[in-house]
Amino acid sequence: MSDRFEEIRKKIEKSNVYETKNGYKYFVYPFKGLTPIDPKELNYLAKVIAKKISKDIDFIFTFETDGIFIASLVSFLLNKPLLCAKKFHYNLVNPIKLTQKTGYYKRDLFFSLNGCDSRKVAIIDCIHSTGGSIKGALEVFKKLKIEVAGIYVIINKINYNDKSFLKKIKNKFFAIYDVKIINDKASAYRSKFF
Predict the structure, then answer these.
(1) Which of 5, 10, 89, 136 has its CA 20 to 30 A from that of 127?
(2) CA 33, 37, 43 angle in degrees (round to 5)?
(3) Using CA atoms, how far apart are residues 84 and 66, in angstroms rounded to an integer?
């Protein structure tokens, strides 16, 4: 692996870890934008993901808020439209609702295809944990008859993985790092889904 891969791995391992009220162990993703993001690191991650995505996709899809940074760069690299589900409907024309259930909250997100005839999408997110966000997106795209070419994440947080769900999507799932919270510390290594 490259020096950049290792730099980012170490940065992940230095992330602050805390527990939510319901017992979910959370670590502060270093590319969240709460602290300055190194553009070279973000660019490296975007290039790794962009290389894995089929060039025949119609658009890239992500979730508000943490997925926006990486999905924007991948969209730019591949010259593909970007669509982001957000927590307010903004009186969109024909809004589509997606229910996002994470390890610590549930919310409705909205987006619109605005008449676009899109048949194939790549889903990008920063972290996959319980699978709630991805499951919600897969359900919506199935109803819309839009093929999901792949699911691409920077981090697969294995503490809370739904193993049967991952087994179901494993041929379409890509992650750069697997991260496990051990004794309130993040341990990161090359993902088995790389």
Answers:
(1) 89
(2) 120
(3) 11
| 130-153 confidence digits (pLDDT tens) | 999 999 999 999 999 999 999 999
- pLDDT, tens digit, for every residue of 82-94? 999 999 999 998 8
Element (H, E) at 143: helix 132-143
Cβ atoms of 48 and 190 closer than 8 Å: no
Spell out the domains of the chain, with CATH numbers in brackets. Answer: 3-190 (3.40.50.2020)
CB 101 within 8 A of CB 129: no
DSSP letters of 82-94?
A: EEEEBSS-TT-SS
Does 62 sit behind a cis peptide bond, omega within 30 degrees of 0 on the bond before it? no
Q: If you write DSSP's letter for every residue of 179-191 in order, what string do you get?
A: EEEETTEEEEEE-
Helix (H, G, I), strand (E, B) or coil at 28: coil
Phi, psi of 116 (to 5 degrees): -70, 140
Q: Provide the token pair at 161.
A: 């993985």
Q: Tell me the residue type at 51.
A: K
- pTM for this one? 0.95
Query: Apex CA 122: angle with CA 117 and CA 128, to 5°?
Result: 140
The pLDDT value given to residue 128: 95
